[in-house]
Amino acid sequence: MSDNIILMPLSDRAKKELMPTLVVFCKRPKIGQGKQRLAEAISPEQTSIIAKALLACAIEDSIAWQGPVVIACSDDNDIEWAQDLNKNAQVLTQLPSGLSGNLGQRLNYVDRVLRSLGHQNIITIGTDAPALTQSHYTAVIDSLNEHDIVLSHADDGGVVIMANSKPWPNIINLPWSTDELSQALSGACVANELSVDYTKPCYDIDYIADIEKLMIDLKDDPRPARQALLGTINQLFVTSGVISHA
């Protein structure tokens, strides 16, 4: 190589294209739908408020993302709603119109669609892990350069981040929404000769104990949506006496 060759810095567009695609799997918050374990302690209306605040945190991460962003909504009637969440995101449904299926079917479908559109390295999150930080994402991005599958283990036995540089195997029949998911998902990938790595673990929000832990973790978090979530938690859980003030 000639010593006279000058390496130009990457353009912003080129940098964005090198970054993995962030996919946010989401369901439109509705009263009586989602986070029903929390609804045992607060009203359905209040539970919906918490769900909206949790969603805002995931969208906050998607807006800050330096690469392509996809919002995968659960219902084709919510496409316009999903687009309003992040104007710069590509929106698609988790399954074709009129079809239903479990999370494994939805992940397999979205993965196939995105790869047909040219996406290669994909990082998928849900909307109930606001304790995720930049360090979690950085660890996943770094690991994805060396492994086919990268997972962030959740405290409850699930996963809070699913990342893949190769297509998912058939994951339809895994024990979704159980404490066996993380291990089963890893096992299915290894059985299909995909290399798997676990990075920094985290947790999602299902129970009052999770809310109590989150209050501590968000105390010094400067991100606006996280501070708004913390304010909502104080209003709905602390002021009402559901949780004693830490």
What does this structure look like?
This protein has 246 residues and is α/β, with parallel strands linked by helices. The protein has a single domain, classed as Spore Coat Polysaccharide Biosynthesis Protein SpsA, Chain A. The protein is 39% helix and 15% strand. The protein contains 8 helices and 7 strands, in the order H-E-H-E-H-E-H-E-H-E-E-H-E-H-H. Strands 3-2-1-4-6-5-7 form a 7-stranded mixed sheet. Helix 2 (44-64) links the parallel strand 1 (21-26) and strand 2. The longest helix has 21 residues, at 44-64. The radius of gyration is 19 Å and the shape is globular. Mean pLDDT is 90; it is low at 1-11.
Explain the layout of strands and helices.
Elements: H1 12-18, E1 21-26, H2 44-64, E2 69-73, H3 79-85, E3 90-93, H4 103-116, E4 122-125, H5 134-144, E5 149-154, E6 159-164, H6 181-191, E7 196-202, H7 208-218, H8 224-238
Parallel strand pairs: 1-2, 1-4, 2-3, 5-7
Antiparallel strand pairs: 4-6, 5-6
Strand content: 15-25%
**Radius of gyration, CA atoms, in whole angstroms:** 19 Å
Task: Please identify, by name, the CATH architecture.
Answer: Alpha-Beta Complex
The count of domains is: 1
Low-confidence stretches: 1-11
Query: Average pLDDT value?
Result: 90
Q: Which superfamily, in CATH terms, is the homologous superfamily?
A: Spore Coat Polysaccharide Biosynthesis Protein SpsA, Chain A
Overall geometry: globular
N to C succession of SSEs: HEHEHEHEHEEHEHH
Query: What is the terminal separation in angstroms?
Result: 62 Å
Instruction: Tell me the CATH topology.
Output: Spore Coat Polysaccharide Biosynthesis Protein SpsA, Chain A
Largest sheet: 7 strands, mixed
Percentage of residues assigned to helices: 25-40%
Strand numbers in spatial order across the main sheet: 3-2-1-4-6-5-7
CATH class: Alpha Beta
Number of strands: 7
| Quaternary form | single chain
Class by SSE composition: alpha/beta
- SS element count, helices: 8
